[in-house]
Amino acid sequence: MTTSARPEQVTPLTPDTLPAPVMAGRDFLSNLDMTPQELRAVMDTAHSMKRGEWRGVRPLSGLSLALVFEKASLRTRTTFDVGMYQLGGHAITLSSQEVGLGTRERVSDVARNLERWVDGVMGRVYLQGTLQELADHAGVPIINGLSDMLHPAQLLADYQTIEEEFGSDLRGKRVVYIGDGNNLANSHIHMSVLTGTDVTIVTPVGYEPNGAVALDAVRRGASVTLTNDLAAVEGADVLYTDVWISMGMEAEADIRRRAFRGYQVTPQMLETIAPDGIFLHCLPAHYGEETVPEATEHPKSRVFDEAENRLHAQKALLYHVMGLMKPRW
């Protein structure tokens, strides 16, 4: 299933027909900062944007977003920057050399400065606590572009891609994540709470996702399975993987490669998932480790659709967080 439409099918929106922003002025540090209804509104907007219905609409005209990076980025930087431009706003990129969160100056001071110049801040940082500190001291929305604990903006693009394949009702769909129980694994567990998917995290012993995240999700009624058994991949509707060695873990590279041996997604593994199942990877891919080029190029792969959807999903997020703001000048 696809939400794409031919140009002649598109009904352009106007400033008077835009949906109401559902997260106006709020922080987005976790997928659980949304309700299921708010997630639905953001997803509907992302699909609408991808269809071209927002072309020419500039709801964020006159607004600025600071992009604060402690970690390198291709997709996060490009999509947030282009997204602000397409919505009529402006993005300014600030590297760790320019800001130095917690080193060059206090995180709280950075927050108090930025709130006086810009209308929102996206942070791609090492620690979730850094984002929380920014949120505690800034009077403008803070958006999590990645932290050690969570990667919620990525999951919006992931689920847009999943909905393109299976429709908007994902209850009972099996999402199997294989590899390191990292920030993406934690965020997949959060999305199970919001969407009703059955999420299975398959990791080597000792590399499971955050236990508190999983326990909280189960208490909220989510279907979450943690296992070391590779057989759990069989029959998956969605098979997802990520790098074994995240930025900042390079010293553990050899240990991790040995631990994750056998957890590589190959074309042979893709033949064991559901006949209409799909393969996702947030990229960048470390070929020869968590996957191989033949998997990302496989007919079941939606990896590059997923990358494209970073733009649409994040534009939708920006609109729903910043859409009611007025320019300061």
UniProtKB/TrEMBL annotation:
One of its GO terms (cellular component) is cytoplasm. Keywords: Amino-acid biosynthesis, Arginine biosynthesis, Cytoplasm, Transferase. Pathway: Amino-acid biosynthesis; L-arginine biosynthesis; L-arginine from L-ornithine and carbamoyl phosphate: step 1/3. It is found in: Cytoplasm. GO terms for molecular function: amino acid binding; ornithine carbamoyltransferase activity. It catalyses: carbamoyl phosphate + L-ornithine = L-citrulline + phosphate + H(+). InterPro entries: Asp/Orn_carbamoyltranf_P-bd (IPR006132), Asp/Orn_carbamoylTrfase (IPR006130), Asp/Orn_carbamoylTrfase_sf (IPR036901), Asp_carbamoyltransf_Asp/Orn-bd (IPR006131), Orn/put_carbamltrans (IPR002292), OTCase_ArgI (IPR024904). L-ornithine binds at N183, D242, S246, M247. Residues 172-320 form the Aspartate/ornithine carbamoyltransferase Asp/Orn-binding domain. Residues 26-164 form the Aspartate/ornithine carbamoyltransferase carbamoyl-P binding domain. Its EC number is 2.1.3.3. Carbamoyl phosphate binds at R124, H151, P152, A153, Q154, C282, L283, R310. One of its GO terms (biological process) is L-arginine biosynthetic process via ornithine. The keyword Amino-acid biosynthesis applies. HAMAP family: OTCase. Belongs to the aspartate/ornithine carbamoyltransferase superfamily. OTCase family. This is Ornithine carbamoyltransferase. It comes from Deinococcus reticulitermitis.
